[in-house]
Description:
Layout: E1 2-9, E2 12-17, E3 31-34, E4 39-41, E5 49-54, H1 61-74, E6 81-87, H2 91-101, E7 107-110, H3 116-121, E8 124-125, E9 130-131, E10 134-138, E11 144-149, H4 159-169
Amino acid sequence: MERNGIVKMAGTPVVLMGNPIAIGDSAPDFTALTKDLKPVSLHDFAGRIVVISAAPSIDTPVCDLQATRFNQEAAAFPEKVQIINITVDLPFALSRFCAARSIDRVLTLSDHRDISFGNAYGVIIKEFRLLARSVFLIDETGMVRYFELVPDITNHPDYEKVLMEIKKLL
Length: 170
């Protein structure tokens, strides 16, 4: 499925591909790779609150700050909250990034192989084969409780709103 006019990159409209997600939907499963090449699926976090922070590439300043900010915020939440940062960067790049930025509280995943997450959540940018900047909050029952698709992917998500929504579920 293709959707036009929803997201921009530096002011230029791009096409999103995949199945769109809405608040109240059951979160679709997906499989992505850890920085150690281990396959992980959403099902692995059943019974937990899951925050999925999607970004185009960790090698850009906004994406770097997004991953770093969520890593810092993760310290304030109990273990039943799992924060995932997902991009289409190669697992090797994720490993390098995590080591350089001391990312240790957020699970970084690579969607590069199958774009399983991007397709299941409707956030593939067709023109670049990147993920649109977005945040999904999934409750312990597997329901999408919050969703933000950043209108221009060169901007940050609303961190304060995401954090407030996580706290509502605790």
